[in-house]
Amino acid sequence: MVNLACILILALVLAVLLVALLFMPSYVAKQNKAVFDYLKENQEIMRRQLEAMGKRESEKTLLSVSLQAYERLALFLERINPPNLISRMSRPGQKAAQLQAVLLNTIREEYEHNMSQQVYVSNLAWDHLVKARNEVEMLINKAAAELDRDADGKELAKGIVSKTLEDKKNPVDQALYILKQELRKNF
Q: When comparing pLDDT for 105 and 2, which is higher?
């Protein structure tokens, strides 16, 4: 009887073990697939979150760079405004031709230094900036053309300032106005 009970228990254990061995791979495969699907879904969620964070960081960076571009272009316009330009560039004893060359060279250098900023502003704003630069250069050249070759730099400076005041529409002021309007509209 004891042997029969042991054989029965052993047969039962073997049957359970055999059933477990038959169904275990299927169960483990289902569990592995569920875990894999869960991890894949979480990975996709994390990828989207990282992408959104990256986009927000890119937008912050672009906003910062764009604002700096507007600041740099406004500074450029202020620096080429004839009264400001003359006060920075004129030197005692300077001849008109020397002052003219220094003023024009300074405008060109300032412009070349800020050319890359055009990608951050509208075509309208950039066109007004270029127009202002060209008109300031023409104003300097006109004032210089009205003087004798040996004229003093002070005479040229007075002529430029006087022509700036005569012109009721200062191109620098117009370009600054356009920049400010665009900045207010976009930001």
A: 105
